[in-house]
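Closing statement on the adenosine-5'-triphosphate sub-project.
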Amino acid sequence: MKIAVLTSGGDSAGMNAVVRAVVRGGILKGCQVWVVREGYEGLVRGNTEAPEPEPAPPAFPDLPPETDGDINLIHNLRFGDGQLLRDGTGDYISGRTLKGRYIVRVGWDDVRGWFSEGGTLIGSARSKAFRTPEGRLAAAYNLIKEGIDALVVCGGDGSLTGADIFRAEWPNLVAKLLSESIITKEQATAHTHLKIVGLVGSIDNDMSMTDLTIGAVTALHRICEAIDNINSTAASHSRAFVLEVMGRHCGWLALLAGVSGGADFIFIPERPPDTESWEDEMCECIQRHREVGKRKTIVIVAEGALDKFLNPIKADYVKDVLTERLGLDTRVTTLGHTQRGGRPCAFDRILPTIQGVEAVQALMEATPDTPSYMIGIQENKITRVPLVDAVAMTRSVADAIEAKEFDKAMSLRDPEFRESLEGFMAISTLDHKTKTIPETKRMRVAIMHMGAPAGGMNAATRAAARWCLRYGHVPIAIHNGFRGLLDDHIHELSWLGVDSWTARGGSELGTNRTLPSIDLGAVASKFQQHSFSALLMIGGFEAFSSLLILEEGRKHYPALHIPLVHLPATISNNVPVTEYSLGSDTSLNALVDACDAIKQSASASRNRVFVVETQGGKCGYIAIMGALATGASLVYTPEHGIGLDTLRRDVRFLKTRYTLDEKGRAEGRLVIRNEAASEVYTTDVIMKMFKEEGGSLFDSRAASLGHTLQGGIPSPMDRSRAARLSLKCMSFIERQHEILMNQPPKTRHALPGSAAVITVQASSIQLMPVQDMVGQADMKNRRGRNPWWLGMKDLVEALVGRPQLATKL
Ligand code: ATP
């Protein structure tokens, strides 16, 4: 198959990772791959110049004749050196001029190092010509001329609409080209069908049928960095800030920034304030916050925010309202294009990589009868949805807004969007009129952090505490885990007290690893003494173990017959069943930052392999996903172990790889090793082995990331998920409490299901009874069995060509 990949519409972080994954994933499947420069405009313009002859690959030493099948790969490995990226002009690729050439065949090394670059290195454009039938006819001809039969389009809803139109029109375009004798009959027969797959690259996250678009999370990072910076100055001067963020038709960035940044009020297009005067509503809300002692005010306005009559709500006007009505010293900050720019965050390297490979797979499986797919993601599951449906549904959101059908607009957004909005309302408003519940239903909810600190623990606590206060419950912080409980180290949380916790790293409550088995009787008596109605434990494997102990302890201690919930939070992501723990995203971002810097230093002077050691205990999640996010050459995990045979092949791979590199340019490579991957082959041993074996080809150094992986400031994704998952835990607790309260007090008996862990499994979030999870827990190694990410090691290695190259030389 001959595949072309293009990026279109507004650029977004992660588009380069898409191109890298499609190029390498395609080559691995035996395809030839082209990049189309400047989006659809490049398709329309095509190639007016013949390509310069490819440089002949230098003779490869000792290539065994039976490896014919791999020669394509080897050839491609030698093809190109990423000049497109490095010269920054976009006019050269692999040292060859691109003048007059928009559809360019690329090879393996052309996309090396593209991970860490923002924007799109192959260029993007908004093409007027492609909107016309003549333009699309030219595009079809240019593809057929190159023999290309499959297209991957990465862009926003407009670009995918264009793709959908192009696909639908294709047979007519081919017929027209044939009737006008522009193409031959053979060409027409060979191109009866164009295979298209869409990937959503857009910072707005405005595409329906996918939870996240490529680049949206990086944009959210930029916004949250700005809010965090503004927060300190706003508090210092007791100021109000109105922030305008991108999002013409979609309020996702404004909403998630509101949740993650702890804003006071937000304006989004899908859900305008439901009152005649939003000015009154906003002022009342902010006035209340000020009355309880808040010194800073943050209001976030989406670029396309509207009132219920469809009048635009603009940041400057919001500022005037705050200044005039509340007398606040108010400033406006428009973030503009800074939101687009910058290095992609870990998520925007992993998502496009997996989706890019999936796009190639979808093309391989496509037949004239299968629909063109858009590759999406739902919670943690990569999905394929018909492109036409996604495009139609996206359009219907805009139509619903235009028709003032805001409920419908909201219903067309994904569940995360809706839940985040409900969550934002629940935790950001401090309202006299909030729904309070009868005395009998009120709870004293204990909240505890366990194990090592992880990003998002504080945000989860803030959300739980505010939810409690909103509904008339009492949130009680237990400091320093079960040890703190035994010392009565507890206090009630207040609305203002937790205000700035979203952005705080570490653990505001203090945490330790002591399990309740230290003295279960004493723990139960403390539950009774403090009249806890429920317990929320936020932590890692210790919290999971504690939950099991407490659940079993119910046989002996009536005080433990209360809802008991564990919200997984650990950078190791080693809690069984769940695919996601709070803190793991923050940690991956810390790893990506460190590795980008290390790789740069490794490439600066000479060929160098850096062996980077990560935390994670006996769980290789951070190592594997970190390797995927940084384009590491090799990864060692406790699950796979390390043996002499593996090391021998790895040394062979590195030698071959360095032999194939362009001479005269230093190249740094990363090897990521989990701290517990092997007791014998330590990071130091591996580094020395590589150094010795590398000889004149490459040198080696080691670096241990240690506690830096706990990350300083939590990532926006950890903050927003913390709020969302925490609120789901609280609803669960409330339901379970109600069931218990319906029983006679003396014989109150909590069912096993009321001791649960909140889990993310593929596309669903479930509170799973802890007893049901035991079978899937490897208690000795403190990790889950068969986690979803284990197979990603193969992908890491496939995308650097390790399986092929390790057998050469
Ligand atoms: P962003 O979300 O960043 O705005 P987008 O993909 O939605 O990205 P658009 O400008 O809407 O950006 O579309 C990009 C390109 O896709 C257009 O310049 C045009 O070439 C093509 N395109 C969009 N809509 C259509 C259409 N209806 N028919 C043909 N081509 C289209």
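Residues 57-72, 78-90 have pLDDT under 50 and may be disordered. With this model delivered, the sub-project is considered complete and its resources will be redirected to Aim 3.
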